Amino acid sequence: MSAATRNRLIRPIHLFLPAVCLCISASSLAATSNSNLSVSSTVLSACSVTGSSLAFGSYTNTQIDNSAAVSITCTNGTAYNVGLDAGGGSGASTAVRKMTGSISGTLSYSLYKDSGRSTVWGNTVGSDTAIGTGTGSAQSISVYGRVPGGQNADVGIYSDTVTVTLTY
To answer: How far does CA 64 lie from the centroid of its chain?
Structure first.
């Protein structure tokens, strides 16, 4: 082989070989360092409440029972109390609430925590409220109502608004 042919073949190798050596040298000289990234969050207690309507229908001087629901949504593990106030009727209490007539008069009713209608639902935490623990999903709590028979009520439409208080 002639010197010129040999130089033509060796010259590309001479150019390529230093580049390969630099790559090998650069990767063999690389170093690493590790650290930790601290990640945290705080889940706060949060709740919401929604009440439905309790419609007793037409009153004909005989007892009427019906029920409604209160929907509670609280963060998982949040303890809560649900209370119902006496409503807005004149002379009402949690034991005997009063719907006010569109013309005049009142129609008495009661709200209970149980379907047997033996435990009146009030608004004193630790006494006459409903208790629960949040799951993160909506939870339905029944409200059982009763309009006692034998009331001498005037003709008209009767209504009341009861405030639902959620304590958590």
So the answer is: 32
Distance (Å, whole) CA 161 – CA 27: 77
Q: Which residues pair with 130 in a beta bridge?
A: 82
Report whether 122 contacts 83 (CB < 8 A).
yes
User: Which two tokens mark 63?
Assistant: 């007892």
Look at residues 9, 53, 47 and name the one whose alpha carbon lies nearest to residue 132. 47
Q: Let me know if 98 is exposed, middle or buried by CB neighbors in 10 A (0-12, 13-18, 19+).
A: buried
Q: How far apart are CA 154 and CA 142, in angstroms?
A: 30
Task: Report the C-alpha gap between 9 and 64 in whole angstroms.
Answer: 108
- Which residue is listed with tokens 């929907």? 71
pTM recorded for the entire structure = 0.77
* Predicted confidence (pLDDT) per residue in 58-107, tens digit: 999 999 999 999 999 999 999 999 999 999 999 999 999 999 999 899 99
